[in-house]
């Protein structure tokens, strides 16, 4: 599993964006699919476009 990059959440309390898109939301089947979705700038987190596939997303 990819390790989240440094960011606003602790590493124990977050998941990288790629795992959320691929495993939780089931928007993509592969890592490459997720990268293409992110590079099209279709994903926003907290109102900002995120293109880093390892961006740490916290749980709500």
Automatic annotation (TrEMBL):
It comes from the Eukaryota. GO terms for biological process: translation. GO terms for molecular function: RNA binding; structural constituent of ribosome. Gene3D superfamilies: RNA-binding S4 domain. InterPro entries: Ribosomal_eS4 (IPR000876), S4_RNA-bd_sf (IPR036986). One of its GO terms (cellular component) is cytosolic small ribosomal subunit. This is Uncharacterized protein.
């Amino acid at each position: 599993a990819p390790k989240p990059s440094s960011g606003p959440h602790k590493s124990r309390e977050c998941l990288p964006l790629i795992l959320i898109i691929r495993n939780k939301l089931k928007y993509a089947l592969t890592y490459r699919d997720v990268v293409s979705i992110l590079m099209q700038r279709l994903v926003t987190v907290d109102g900002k476009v995120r293109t880093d596939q390892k961006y740490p997303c916290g749980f709500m």
